[in-house]
Design a protein that fits this description.
single chain, globular, 271 residues, 14 strands, six-stranded mixed β-sheet, alpha/beta
Amino acid sequence: MGMVHHFRAEKVKAGYDKKTIIEDIELEIPSNKISVIIGANGCGKSTLLKTLAKLMKPSSGEIILDGKSISKIPSKQLARVLGILPQSPVVPEGITVADLIGRGRFPHQSFLSGWSKKDYEAVAEAMEIMKITEFANDEIDELSGGQRQRVWIAMALAQQTDILFLDEPTTFLDITYQIEILDLLTDLNRIHGTTIVMVLHDINLSARYADYMFAMQNGKLVAVGEPEKIITNTLIKDIFGLDCTVIKDPISSSPLVVPIGRYHVNGERNR
């Protein structure tokens, strides 16, 4: 099982070009669980994820991993514990699937050692988990969006970190692939104990797959906890401006948000 890590943010504020995007962020990431960050577009979800993953530097406050500020942990050392799949990463031209996934092994390699048996095994296992072994020698450019997304996740998996951050891993995917990717990430969590933190767009998939949720509004955390405890029609109205009713998902028993529009009330479709 994945190691237990203590990962928290203390009074974190961050943004771009002197514009504050997130502030007063105090949180603790539950170890060996799946956490999902939700909120409306522009509320600061990606900025929070990037700041937690050291892709962005907070303007104030600290991100603490096992008692040490991540700003003081060398990047290569941090990359052995913490992996990230950013939003729409850039594909180097002409690179094959196996080569790209192999880049995930960089933190584990010393300057002179070259590739070890463990490196090859990690790449093979990551391709197997994501069901892309057959594409190993194909160029990334030739793949469909869904296949490409799996390659990026496999690269993060090959890094074999205890903590994995993913920024909208299911964007642009058909619902079938969204479920498949979320199931595969859940396998990773359940089998290896990987701590997973994701930004997801779909509120109902978030509620279904998350052990724990962080709800954001205007750069601040407004609700934190298990989906059953925090997903209410009031919260959804507050953060998305959406009138809804929350019922129990008949499949997973997690909260299911059913939107209310102006045309469908009292069980009838108004003409």
